[in-house]
Amino acid sequence: MVLKVIGAIIVIWIAFSVIGFVFKAIGTLLIVAAIATVGVAAYGAIKGRAANRQIRR
Q1: N or C: which terminal CB in the chain sees fewer CB atoms within 10 Å?
Q2: d(CA 54, CA 14)
Q3: Does 57 reside within a domain?
Q4: DSSP track, the chain
Q5: What local confidence, expressed as pLDDT, does residue 45 receive?
Q6: 11 domain-assigned
Q7: Is 56 within a domain?
């Protein structure tokens, strides 16, 4: 009986560890994606502004 309880506690601990790792990885990916999105938007704004400054004939 004691081994079953210890086994259940270990399984629950491993499950929470895996779930925590998954959420931490998703959070990190969201931060990276947000930074990349801001970078692409800034790059597009800078390039778009430079294209409007050209002299058209």
Answers
A1: C
A2: 61
A3: no
A4: -HHHHHHHHHHHHHHHHHHHHHHHHHHHHHHHHHHHHHHHHHHHHHHHHHHHTS---
A5: 87
A6: no
A7: no
- Alpha carbon 7 to chain centroid distance? 33
- How many domains, the chain? 1
Residue 15 to residue 8: CA distance in whole angstroms: 10
Give the pTM.
Answer: 0.61
Q: Domain limits at 27?
A: 21-51
Q: Is residue 6 part of a domain?
A: no
Average of per-residue pLDDT values in the chain: 90
* pLDDT score at 8: 97
Residues of the chain with pLDDT under 50: none
